[in-house]
Amino acid sequence: MINLRSQRLPLVIILAVSFLSTVGMALVFPVLPFLVGAHVGDAGSTAFWVGILEATYAACAFVAAPFLGALSDRIGRRPVLIVSLIGSAIGWVMFGLGGALWVLLLARVIDGLTAGDMSVAFAYLADITAPEDRARRFGLAGAVGGVGFLVGPAIGGLLATVNLAAPMLAAAAVSLLTAILAAVVLPESLDPERRTTRLSLSDINPLRAIGDAVRRPGLGSLILVFALAAVPLALFGGNVPVLTKDVLSWNTVEVGLLMSGVGIVDIIVQGGLLAVMLRIMGDRGVVVGGLLGQAFGCGVIVVVAAFLPMSWVFVTGALLFAMAQGATGAVLQGLLSQAVGDDEQGWLAGSMSAIGSAVQTVGPLLAGLLYLRVAPFAPYLLAVAILLVAAVLARRILYAGAGAGVQDRAASPAV
């Protein structure tokens, strides 16, 4: 079998897969509150049901992700990736056709149970990348995802002006196209001799997978930071289109343009600025600084939602949050991947996906309830508090050397 570590083509292909997957997801962001609002009516209920739908997807992904990650360690990345993409296509077709809330819920269940495309893509990148280069390559994948977020929301917002179902059907088409691309031209990254030889029923249990990861030396402390950092993003994601619709009176095009702005920020940060930040600040500094930057961005959004409903101020806060989150996420992924062996990258990706899905299950529900019962600014005020706690813990954990086996370093040369 060809040694993939010496090849550029697999890297290009998996980045293309990541781009198309991100485009598919980003297409639907601007239209989600409008589509749900057509079924439920008032603004508070829309925020709550958007949270329900996102939590349903995350709960199903929480159940499925560890199994899909472990399965990719056993049979290879490529077949799991293809099945995940086909599941997403089916889910988006159902969501677009809709007709009732229960159909939307069923669509999110199907999509969630096959949600392994991005986690397997990161495991694939780990397979073909030397450990010391993984933070940079994960950053590169994030930058490519940023291009997807640049293109997807703008197209989705425009398609929604024709028909609210159009972005969902377009997302399904993109997912299917990505599955075809993976099936036709993507080589397998995990050589047979590097695969695990067993797949037990315990791999289906997400709590077992998370417990194993937390108990692993060198992983537990990093996972704590990862989990805390994931909470504000869960509060932020599905709720922002509702907030902009209600507080700023934005339409689908304006929401799409905001998401495109987030994509531009991702490209700038993860495509180039991250390398400079790593050279100057090191892994630890980027993580801590990124958490503080996210807290500041969420604080700006609190001000907008509570006192100063001005679009340009909101955009400033949202982009600051996106910039800091992109840098933090890429470096944390790189640090985590260095702490396990080559034959466990799929297991790690699945475990991290399960943790992220658990957070995404609770986060949107909590955001919707806070929005409905307290105030529109309440989810973002909670995010500020969590991020400040995460920054303090990250500094203590990383600088005290609790992330065993992880060395702070300057960025390695570009690949």
Describe the structure concisely.
The chain is an all-alpha fold and 415 residues long.
Explain the overall architecture.
Helix content is 78%, strand content 0%. The radius of gyration is 20 Å and the shape is globular. The chain has a single domain, classed as MFS general substrate transporter like domains (Growth Hormone, Chain: A). The protein contains 15 helices and no strands. By secondary structure, the protein is mostly helical. It has helices at 9-26, 32-40, 43-75, 77-97, 101-113, 117-127, 134-160, 166-185, 206-215, 220-237, 240-247, 252-306, 311-338, 345-373, 378-399. Helix 4 (77-97) runs antiparallel to helix 6 (117-127).
Averaged pLDDT: 78
User: What sort of overall outline do the alpha carbons produce when their principal axes are compared?
Assistant: globular
Q: Report the portion of residues in β strands.
A: under 5%
Q: Count the domains.
A: 1
Key features of this structure:
about 425 residues, mainly alpha, about 80% helix, globular, disordered C terminus
Record the SSE blueprint.
Elements: H1 9-26, H2 32-40, H3 43-75, H4 77-97, H5 101-113, H6 117-127, H7 134-160, H8 166-185, H9 206-215, H10 220-237, H11 240-247, H12 252-306, H13 311-338, H14 345-373, H15 378-399
Helix pairs in contact: 1-6, 1-7, 1-8, 2-3, 3-4, 3-5, 3-14, 4-5, 4-6, 4-8, 6-14, 7-8, 7-12, 7-13, 9-14, 10-13, 10-14, 10-15, 12-13, 12-15
